[in-house]
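Long-time lurker, finally posting.

We've been working with Penicillin-binding protein (Listeria weihenstephanensis) and I want a structural starting point before designing mutants. I don't trust myself to interpret raw outputs, so I'm hoping someone here can both generate the structure tokens and explain anything notable. Sequence follows.
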Amino acid sequence: MRVQRQKKNSKKVIWISLIVVVVLAIIGGVTYYFMNSNAKNEKMANAAAENFTTNIKKENFTKLSDDVTKKSLKSSGFTADEMETKYKTVYTGIDARDIKVADLKVTYDDAKKNYKLAYSLEMTTTLGKLAKQKYNATISSEDDDWKVDWQPNLIFPGMVKSDKVRLTTDEAKRGQIQDLNGKGLAINKNVSEAGIVPNDLGEGEAKTKNLAAISKAFDIPVADLEKKLSQSWVHPDTFVPIKVLTTGSPVQMAGVSYATIETRYYPLSQAAAHLIGYVGEVSAEDIEKNKLLNVGDFIGKAGLERYYDKALRGTNGGRILIVNDETKEETVLQQNEKKDGENIKLTIDSKIQQDTFNALKGEVGSATIINPTNGNLVALVSSPSYDTNQMVAGISSADYKKYTDDKNLPFLARYATRYAPGSTFKTITAAVGLENGTTKPDKVREISGLQWQKDKSWGKYFVTRVHDIPKVNMVDALVNSDNIYFAQEGLAMGETKFQDGLKKFDFGEEFDLPFNMEPAQISNDGIKSDILLADTAYGQGELLMSPIQQAVAYTPFANNGKMVYPKLRETEETKAAKDSMSAATANTVKSALVQAVSKPEGTAHKLQIAGHNIAAKTGTAELKQKQGESGLENGFLLAFDSDKPDYLVLAMIEGVNGRGGSGLVIEKMKPVMESFYK
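Top reply, 14 upvotes:
Generated this for you. Predicted structure of Penicillin-binding protein:
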């Protein structure tokens, strides 16, 4: 009997164990199910948050309805299309861009059995960077998915359905670029803008005839006019701008209307085009580089307009408001105070700039006029030039092509372009020789004939000169521009002494000027031959200097041996003047340059101006493929008043062969210099 009870107890234990196992399995399964379900829900909620904010960031508003619950849209009084339209209208209206999502956080709300969503948005609007906006929402289950419960306050915090977002702007005025007397070189001016109203063109043959007449009157191809009229925003009664009229009076004709607009205007236009530059409408690339720019803005595209653009442009003001049309309540979302652009005052004299350009018009060349005592750049002229007002008004592709196809390169700023300086450089060779003791003012060199070479090792290469003078000293050599004399002086100095002297003229150094200009160079890779040393000494060889660099290098002759640094903006500080030579050396060379004008045989004799002691040096630089050949000649003129050195002129004309050589430069520049004394 005892054995049987033990068996019954064993069966009972087994059954209990089985029940426990089953219960535990059920509990475990349920737990696993709920844990897995929660993980899945959390994953879906996070995906909803990520999709919703990413579509806002990318401004994919057409996809937003996939991310929000239908119930929330209905309770907010919006359809999916209305929500999409609302976002587009608001974001486009304030030019929202560069949108970034930050602080994204999704947490489960156990009490409400949904998820809480929090995030921030950063963006740039037409008024600049908007302060970080913080958002809160919920994520709920709908149709076996989790989506954001949408409300208008997810456009901007605090918004309700009847709210609108409005932008008011207060556009900053672009600052002027002025000359030293305050006269405008780049100004803002009210002008007439011609436009077409499609309704006024008529129909059929009348329209065709009117378009042809407009094309002829405004020099715009009919195809270009039709392209403007076919833009998506154009309606029958829309004013479609076709041309800004900076000069002349409006022409009355069928289909054409006029509006008054403010635009950038350049009083000197071609005379200062390379220096002042022009403005133009921003491109997509410009906006990508500078997030503060907006479509329709105008910025500097060339010259000083571009270099000083930030200071000239200033900062637009304005407000972005959330406005409730029912309550008239306004909430300021963003506000900026307008700051007009700064006026940039230059050292340029607009009258001298214009007179100098007029003198060079028709030639390929340049002129730099500098005050040799303080470095003020008085005129920087390059010819040929281009019409900056035409660039602002909207140059046609045909007219622009005329400029780009012009072999004389009208866009090239020649005053900042390097050339071989030619015989004007002999002044520096003389100064270097005087300083190191090689050159003596009265030391005579006996030279026979018009050709000379050091020895037979030079082969067929000879240094040539114009005048056969048997006995030549330094003064004679400068007065008559004797190449052979200076070639021999350079060889007597030797490469080391010569180059050491040239270092005092800042070869290889950059000037602090608001435009690009390669440093002056003595040679490509060192003076490694006697021929190159001789050629360099009289201003040829591999020497390269821009007209500005030449003018600066020659200032010591007018300034007691001190070389000043160029200055273009009145308020700028430049480096202190540099002692490039002694006052005695400077005055010795200056005396010779005065004689180059006063003596009948002097190369600059035609530059005499009654009552004034003009110091001058002319020069030509020959461009040729190899030694012994003839090539294109550039003519140069260096000139200043030896008694009252408040100006120094360095002018250059390309291709003076057979046209009077450097005498042509004197002919062009003498009237300009004479005007200084009137």
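Before you design anything, note these points.
The first helix runs from residue 2 to 57.
Residues 273 and 388 are 6 Å apart (CA to CA).
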